[in-house]
Amino acid sequence: MNITRRGLLASPLPLAAFAQEAYPSRPVNVVVPWGPGGPTDTFARVLTTRLSSDLGQGFVVDNRVGANGTIGMAAAARLRPDGYNIVITPNSTYAAAPHLYQLPFDMAQAFVGVGLLVTMPMFMLVAKASPVNSVAEYIALARRGGQSYANASVGATSHLATEQFLQAAGIEVLEVGYRGGGPAVQAVLTGETGMVFMPAASVMGFIASGELKALGVASPERSPLAANIPTFAEQGFPQVQVEEHVGMLAPAGTPEPILARLNAACTAALTAADLAPRLQALAVTPARQPLAAWPAYARAETEKLGAIVRSRNIRVQ
């Protein structure tokens, strides 16, 4: 019997028809290679709580922190590919990190994708007291010298978006490193540094209160979270497009019926009407991606972020 992926997803037969046991039949370990309380971890806990309810088994978050998520990914790559070990992580880990670290594994070979889960728009921000109110005004200010930007983590999507913008604008601004998004945002709020790029999940409260001014959003279209903020394309820089993406992966060799089951469960959870307010509060937008779309997406995203790393000569110290 020839069963295609499309046929499997549409089939009324239970997963037990394709495996020795119904999935999941015991708790699932979810590696989140970023720290507790951050945007990825917070989203992962909302999603896994819903998956636990929908699928009738616990989805237990296991934080493995360090080196842009690569420490956790290295640990996850060694776990059994049986569907009871999965990873939730952003594109700075699965797409950018391979260009920055000497990894003990090949990211594309060690993992398979369950799917892209959510996206977060990336905003360019200055403090309320800043004299600039547009990208053009910031560029003019930067050309006079004396400007700096806050970098939350080398190789994070926020860092790559900043470097992509500086290259497109033809300006250079002093980089000031911080340990995480919170300190980087605080540095701009207090005037210690002049500008920062940050995903929406970290800054929507500050934008709403007016404490931070968003000069542009690095997405193809304006974000419904802040529809008054123009894109970089609208301001003459269509090449500035970096978003925070969060995806689910599993160790290579995980059975495809299980991957399909997880993909369908994630889609159902993230499109459930009652979960929408929670996702909006997290400033994330669900991304519907069929299982078959991951390989092409991952290749394109890896090349896109890698091109920024190479062209800006970004290195981890």
What does this structure look like?
There is one protein chain. By secondary structure, the chain is of the alpha/beta class. The chain has 2 domains: 20-119 and 244-311, D-Maltodextrin-Binding Protein, domain 2; 122-235, D-Maltodextrin-Binding Protein, domain 2, CATH 3.40.190. Helix content is 38%, strand content 19%. It has 12 helices and 11 strands. The strands form 3 sheets. It has a 6-stranded mixed β-sheet with strand order 2-1-3-10-4-11, sandwiched between helices. Strands 8-5-9 form a 3-stranded antiparallel β-sheet. β1, α2 (39-55) and β2 form a beta-alpha-beta unit. The N and C termini lie far apart (54 Å).
Query: What class do helices, strands and sheet pairing give?
Result: alpha/beta
CATH architecture group name of the largest domain: 3-Layer(aba) Sandwich
CATH C-level name of the largest domain: Alpha Beta
Q: Give the total of beta strands.
A: 11
Task: Please outline what is shown here.
Helix content is 38%, strand content 19%. It has 317 residues and is of the alpha/beta class. The strands form 3 sheets. It has a 6-stranded mixed sheet, sandwiched between helices.
